[in-house]
Design a protein that fits this description.
elongated, alpha/beta, 21 helices, 34% helix, 8-stranded mixed beta sheet, 5-stranded parallel beta sheet
Length: 522
């Protein structure tokens, strides 16, 4: 390192991916001032005013000469106020206020207030994970983010309430800073294989659903294999009720999934006090724009959309035909790959998008098509019904594993359904056992659930079923009633049904039921 040019490490976040940035500070013989170079955005360019005021409030001083701050690599666009702490410390080191021997070994992540305090920027947890993966042994964060940062193991955490404490730590002087060692236990709590938590009274429960036993069982199949599902039925049949309770029967997130979901949540403005343990649930309105669903942004940075916020959870598109065609068709690629790539002229960000999609829609614009009640006659023209159904494109429907017709509950069924119904906790136990069975079968593969298994593997020697079991599928494929993609999706659903029944292989009944749950889709 060149003499007189101290370097303080920082983390530049682009989505969930972090890049190491070295903040260089040099004093030159010019009139007093400060310049920040290295493609800063507006918020970062204003840091020079925040830094000077915060340093003065902390009882420290910058050089009376001109201070140049360079953010290296210079070609990487930098966004936000999270570089404030590194800029201030690099400037203090260039002004000989603090030593610089630990500046480049420690990642710094914090926004400065005018009173010298350090605040939590968005994405703190993602920054700590990135710092660990980039090889940093420690990271300095605001005291307000202490609990959130300590959720990530194997990296030392230094928390500071203000700039004076940060300078004291680098100087080896006593202060209000706190060190959290790297060998602490993982802040995870209950694992996905641990005991199920008791139900909260405010938590949705499958026991709330009356008279829809077949639909509830279909949701269990969807949860066990993480299959995408579409629900079609008249208003009041319970489509939204079913979909909103699907997360309650999903198993707890694994530690890896919990860390990913928590990093996504950390991109918001609120600090985390624990890792996200339960599958997230997103329900965007049908007026949502493509950017709000897929993600987007520009010079100020790229933000995740609902499809990323629902990663390892569920996203419900209620009133699916009312969503714009651009939004629906944009879902096709991430549903296949499990990731979403957002490209801009100078930026590219990749977000995880491995979720379970639920589509809910009426059978027609008025909602009364195929109603057995003569008083609820459909008033839609055949053309209106056809146009309404075609708003969801064929390629998107082709990615849906289960298609369920939900009927209104009759008075007789309602009277019979007042008996005890299975709770979400009981159904979650079934789903968890089925997923464990699938994970054991797929332990030597890169897949964890049946929905991820490609058709080539299902039809290959590792999982090929006897011809007597697949006869009905082979006949449907031969006469053109089923596409090869539909053949593979039916096999995936059949394997899930077999896992729920603790069977080694799907039998003919499982395949017949899988075809029925496919709803006649090709």
């Amino acid at each position: 390192m060149s003499a007189g040019v101290p370097r303080a490490a920082a983390i530049a976040l682009l989505g969930l991916t972090g890049t190491a940035v070295m903040v260089e500070a040099a004093v030159t013989r010019q009139l007093p001032g400060m310049a920040i170079i290295g493609l800063p955005d507006t918020a970062l360019g204003e840091a020079r005013l925040r830094v000077r005021t915060a340093i003065a409030q902390a009882g420290l001083s910058l050089s009376e000469r001109f201070l140049t701050i360079n953010l290296s690599p210079a070609a990487l666009p930098k966004h936000g106020s999270s570089f404030d702490l590194a800029i201030a410390l690099a400037g203090l080191a260039a002004s000989t206020e603090i030593p610089d021997h630990r500046l480049s070994e420690t990642a710094h992540f914090g926004e400065l207030g005018l009173d010298g305090g350090i605040r939590r920027p968005a994405g703190l947890l993602s920054a700590v994970v990135a710092a660990r993966s980039l090889g940093f042994e420690r990271i300095m964060v605001p005291e307000s983010g202490r609990v959130e940062a300590s959720l990530v193991p194997d990296i030392e955490i230094v928390t500071v309430p203000d700039l004076a404490a940060a300078a004291a730590w680098h100087s080896g002087a006593p202060g209000a800073w706190r060190e959290i060692p790297s060998d602490r236990p993982v802040g995870f709590g209950t694992s996905g294989n641990g005991p199920l938590a008791p139900r909260s009274l405010s938590e949705p429960d499958m026991a709330d659903i009356i008279g829809q036993e077949e639909a509830v069982e279909a949701m269990v199949v969807a949860a066990a294999g993480r299959h995408h599902i579409s629900l079609t039925g008249p208003p009041g049949a319970g489509k939204t009720l079913l979909a909103s309770r699907l997360p309650s029967i999903l198993p707890d997130l694994t530690p890896e999934e919990a860390l990913t979901a928590s990093c996504i949540a950390s991109l918001g403005g609120s600090p985390l006090t624990e890792l996200v343990r339960r599958p997230p649930f997103e329900r965007p309105h049908h007026t949502a724009s493509p950017a709000s669903i897929i993600g987007g942004g520009g010079a100020a940075g790229i933000r995740p959309g609902a499809i990323t916020k629902a990663c390892h959870g569920v996203m419900l598109l209620d009133e699916t035909p009312l969503f714009s065609a651009g939004v629906l068709d944009a879902l096709r690629q991430p549903l296949e790959s499990g990731v979403i790539e957002i490209h801009r002229a100078t930026l590219r960000a990749t977000f995880p998008a491995r979720l379970q999609l639920v589509l809910a829609s009426n059978p027609c614009p008025c909602g009364n098509a195929d109603s057995p009640d003569p008083a609820l006659e459909c008033t839609c023209t055949p053309y209106a019904r056809r146009q309404y159904g075609q708003r969801v494109s064929g390629p998107l429907r082709d990615r849906i594993d289960l298609a369920l017709q939900v009927r209104r509950v009759s008075t007789a069924v309602f009277a019979e359904a007042c008996a005890v119904r299975p709770t979400s906790q009981e159904l979650r136990s079934r789903v968890q056992r089925a997923r464990e069975r699938a994970a054991t079968r797929l332990c030597r593969t890169p897949w964890k659930v049946n929905a991820e298994v490609p058709g080539t593997w299902l039809r290959g020697p590792a999982a090929k079923l006897p011809r007597s079991h697949t006869a009905v599928l082979d006949q449907a494929l031969g006469r053109g009633a089923l596409t090869l993609r539909g053949y593979d999706r039916t096999l995936r659903v059949a394997w899930t049904i077999a896992d729920l029944g603790d069977r080694e292989l799907p039998d003919r009944a499982d395949i017949a039921r899988a075809l029925a749950l496919r709803g006649g889709q090709r």
